[in-house]
Write a structure and sequence with these properties.
The protein has one domain: Serine Threonine Protein Phosphatase 5, Tetratricopeptide repeat, CATH 1.25.40. Helices cover 74% and strands 0% of the residues.
Length: 90
Amino acid sequence: MVSAQNAKQKKADRLFNDLAYIEAVEVFKELIEKDYNTTYNNQKLGDSYMKLRSPENAVFYYADALKFSLINILRCRRYALCRFGWLQYE
């Protein structure tokens, strides 16, 4: 079971790195539903939505990533960018 999730994680990361954000979103969501690497996948899902210029969707996943991890300045910045409409994302 773990190896299947690990393979799916690699697929999601590859899709993200290949700029296939729409496809990556679906795989990241599947991983989150299976409670696999939740903080990381919420972060990557938020990043995917930001790349797709959809901060209204990204904000939920950044918020979840913040809930499940130690405070991280970059995550806080990304959350604020999409939450408050500051779209000067790198």
